[in-house]
Amino acid sequence: DQQVKQNSPSLSVQEGRISILNCDYTNSMFDYFLWYKKYPAEGPTFLISISSIKDKNEDGRFTVFLNKSAKHLSLHIVPSQPGDSAVYFCAASIQGGSEKLVFGKGTKLTVNP
Amino acid sequence: DTGVSQDPRHKITKRGQNVTFRCDPISEHNRLYWYRQTLGQGPEFLTYFQNEAQLEKSRLLSDRFSAERPKGSFSTLEIQRTEQGDSAMYLCASSLEVQAWGELFFGEGSRLTVL
What we know:
Radius of gyration of chain A: 13 Å
Helix content of chain A: under 10%
Shape of chain A: globular
Largest sheet of chain B: 7 strands, mixed
Order of helices and strands of chain A: EEEEEEEEEEE
Number of helices of chain A: 0
Number of helices of chain B: 0
Shape of chain B: globular
Oligomer: heterodimer
């Protein structure tokens, strides 16, 4: 069963506009959430994270929102740039337990010039 | 370059052969992870070391798989009697215990193709 779900395999936006990537999770024990970005032929790289005690975390053009009651998080990229084109993975974990991350299947973002 | 390095980057083998992958983590990182990624899926956790101790293994890690980190530095992942279903990208990641939690540094991966 997929505990972390990214239901949109792909997303296409225009340069300068907002990109919104969504993620849902089913395990209520998850209390730490991360987004990773992956370019072709490279390993995933950490982008931004959020703890369940917060509902928003911002880092430059990237903001992650967490809605615990809906078990939903989203990544906003404003403004989107062509260099943001990549696959974005949502991941979740349980602090204080195993160190493993549970990843979604990813969303391929294409930012058109 | 002081990132996580993996070797080989690509491996093609015949079914039934044994293969071994090596991972060199970032030097000061005491935690090392192996993940597997198949086409269209996200990375799936396989196993995790803290220093030389293997602290957790996924049920995905059948008895044909073995991982070691003998001196708490580099790690090897061996797959015995490979099957076509083992074809995947094997990703290694490392982290430092005291850093922000969950932020793993991944290598570029070792792609395995079993014919």
